[in-house]
Design a protein that fits this description.
Immunoglobulin-like; six-stranded mixed beta sheet; 5 helices; 32 strands; 10% helix; binds CU-O-CU linkage; binds copper (II) ion
Length: 562
């Protein structure tokens, strides 16, 4: 009894102490969500922004720092913000996905969000996580080494944000409403953008294209994020190589290539040497989409890399990028990335697992009278045949306050229907999912493996799967159906890449591992916005462990009400 009493006092002291120390130097940022008038592709339109900017403001922090962002919603829609890739240890309250960890911030209302950085280092980003607002509400997060620390690569002479985006002439909320009402595909976007500008291959865009000015013989760190909605992109710079040194806020073994492939949700830190004859060179971003019968915006965004003193009269050279359906180009690049192993950045890959969750990720259909999906159906998407329905109260609050009837804890640990997922022909009966709000419960500190199994149900396609609250190791992948007896034998358990978003190959599978050491409610979903809208998502609830340090923090006092 006495001992317990003692410990409690000690703990209060430690907690109180750390709050005191930190409170004085916590940096605060103000994010005002509001409409702003922007002109692109010869047309003006109002878009939702943060602080009137598109792309939004960058956050610059050090590893291990905690900051507060005061969010004020002056827009006309409910909104939430997500700090993509920030693990927020024990603090799911400020993670952001609407109806998963919070109810949205209503117009006129505020929410102060505490963002806790821990081991992330490199580039992450923030974006809206309600409706389709993230199309224009997003920005970069640059996470520098701790004060006094350094990069595990030669210090670049300068760094340049590269934010890839997607633009519709129409209001994105209308795009969303339309395709949800019709049951079909969303209409294609009208342009891709580099730092908010489409570039001169689009009408009225040449004068405002993004220009990156360089001096010869220098090294530049490109902090790249794909903030677009629905496409994996190829990106490259004419005649220049890109050396990947980090992905999703983790350092990698340097990998030098002529182009990169980057999915929505992913970030990449790349070094570029200005070692070519002084001139102007195009940088370009174009889609990778390989799926039968899928319409997509097949255009190319460009920007200019301009050497000091180069002539404006010689036309710039264009980079050689793979063609839009080049699966092997995309996957070769993606799966060549390896974690950096160093004393300062050790990695601990779970060698033994406590639980494997195998889940299909599929595009599906619901029967419908006259919808715009294939043969009059309504398009849907699912994981393990459950098309996720958002609850009326967020899952985090329902879990924390034990509100019954909001969600079920029975997300299946393997596909409820076993069939040849990647067969050429799959009967219609197998294409219809069930609706549900089911989550998977994970034991604190258990080692989890998740196998994402792509299917050819309505159509095969790559899926960028994103997990909140963690970085995971990508231990294996392949085409066809995952074989639990054979495939784990070829896993990389030595230096697999660490990510928060991974491209699951079309008609194939990907296996990831992580230790469930972050108690809370964490969203898992496809980062293609239309698939998220259709239900390709679930939630992991990591139970609390023993002792206060293994428990979810108490909620902030200003959680937005439902
Ligand atoms: Cu980039 Cu659930 O988010
Ligand atoms: Cu998807």
């Amino acid at each position: 009894m006495l001992l317990k009493y003692h410990c409690n006092i000690l703990l209060i002291l430690i907690v109180a102490n750390s709050i005191c120390v930190k409170a004085s130097d916590i940096r605060r940022y103000s994010f005002v969500v509001r409409e702003a008038l922007y002109e692109r592709l010869c047309e003006r339109k109002w878009i939702l922004t943060v602080n009137g900017k598109f792309p939004g403001p960058s956050l610059k922090v050090h590893a291990g720092e905690t900051i507060v962002v005061d969010v004020l919603n002056r827009g006309n829609y409910n909104i939430t913000l997500h700090w993509h890739g920030v693990k927020q240890p024990r603090n799911p309250w400020a993670d952001g996905p609407a109806y998963i960890t919070q109810c949205p911030i209503q117009p006129g209302k505020r929410f102060s969000e505490k963002i806790i950085f821990s081991k992330e280092e490199g580039t992450l980003w923030w974006h809206a996580h309600s409706d389709w607002s993230r199309a224009t509400v997003h920005g970069l997060i640059m996470v520098y080494p701790r004060p006094g620390g350094s990069y595990p690569f030669p210090k670049p002479d300068a760094e340049v944000p590269i934010i890839l985006g997607e633009w519709w002439k129409e209001d994105v909320m209308k795009v969303l409403e339309e395709f949800v009402a019709s049951g079909g595909q969303p209409r294609d976007s009208d342009a891709y953008t580099i730092n908010g500008q489409p570039g001169e291959l689009y009408p009225c865009s040449a004068p405002r294209r993004f220009v990156m000015k360089v001096d010869p013989g220098k090294t530049y760190l490109l902090r790249i994020v794909n903030a677009d909605m629905n496409e994996i992109l190829f990106f490259g710079v004419a005649r220049h190589h890109l050396t990947v040194v980090g992905t999703d806020g983790c350092y990698t073994e340097p990998l030098t290539r002529g182009y990169i492939a980057i999915s929505p949700g992913q970030t990449m830190d790349c070094l570029l040497r200005s070692d070519q004859p002084p001139a102007r060179y195009y940088m370009a971003a174009c889609p990778y989409v390989n799926g039968a019968g899928i319409s997509f915006d097949n255009t190319t965004a460009t920007a200019i890399l301009r050497y000091a003193g180069s002539s404006r009269h010689t036309p710039p050279e264009f980079p050689k990028l793979p063609s839009p359906n080049d699966t092997s180009a995309a996957l070769n690049f993606t799966y060549s990335i390896k974690s950096l192993i160093s004393k300062l950045h050790p990695i601990v890959v779970p060698q033994k697992i406590n639980k494997r969750i195998t889940t299909t990720v599929s595009v599906n259909v619901f029967p419908c009278e006259a919808c715009a999906g294939p043969n009059g159906t309504r398009l849907a998407a699912a994981m393990n045949n459950i098309s996720f329905s958002a609850p009326p109260v967020d899952i985090l609050e329902a879990y924390y306050y034990q509100i019954p009837g909001i969600f079920s804890k029975k997300f299946p640990e393997s596909p409820p229907l076993v069939f040849n997922y990647t067969a050429d022909f799959i009967p219609l009966e197998l294409e219809i999912p069930k609706k549900g709000t089911k989550v998977a419960m994970l034991r604190y500190n258990s080692n989890i493996e998740v196998v994402f199994q792509g299917t050819n149900q309505v159509g095969e396609l790559d899926h960028p799967m994103h997990l909140h609250g963690f970085s995971f190791f990508v231990v294996g992948w392949g085409f066809g159906n995952f074989d639990p007896n054979k495939d784990p034998l070829s896993y990389n358990l030595v230096d697999p890449q660490k990510r928060n978003t991974v491209i699951v190959p079309r008609n194939g599978w990907t296996a990831i591992r992580f230790t469930a050491d972050n108690p809370g409610v964490w969203f898992l979903h496809c980062h293609f916005e239309r698939h998220l809208t259709w239900g390709m998502e679930t939630v992991f609830i990591v139970r609390s462990g023993r002792g206060p340090a293994a428990r979810v923090l108490p909620p902030p006092p200003d959680m937005p009400p439902c």
